[in-house]
């Protein structure tokens, strides 16, 4: 299974692509703070489905589930099994 480093790298790339070159801590708010947009949430969901076998159709989706790297990693650890 991939880990937090891969998630951090993916999120950092999303931020960079949107012009945000600021520092990124694992507990920084991504969506609720406005650093990332709704389209980025879709990218994160696709990333999690493809790389961590998370089935959002089964578990449902809430933006708060993916609002930080820590939350994304926790979701990957629980839902991906």
Q: Could you list some keywords that capture this structure?
A:
single chain; 81 residues; mainly alpha; 4 helices; 0% strand; globular
Q: Could you tell me the strand content as a percent range?
A: under 5%
State mean pLDDT (0 to 100 scale).
92
Oligomer: single chain
User: How would you spell out the order of helices and strands?
Assistant: HHHH
> Which descriptor suits the 3D outline?
globular
Give the biggest beta sheet: none
Helix content: 40-55%
- Determine the N-to-C terminus distance: 10 Å
Annotation, overall tally of beta strands: 0
Write the layout of secondary structure elements.
Elements: H1 4-17, H2 38-52, H3 56-59, H4 69-79
Description:
With 81 residues, this protein is mainly α. The chain contains 4 helices and no strands. 54% of the residues lie in helices and 0% in strands. The longest helix has 15 residues. The protein is globular and about 35 Å long. It starts with a helix and ends with a helix. The mean pLDDT is 92.
Task: Give a brief rundown of this model.
Helix 1 (4-17) crosses helix 4 (69-79). The chain is mainly α and 81 residues long. It has helices at residues 4-17, 38-52, 56-59, 69-79.
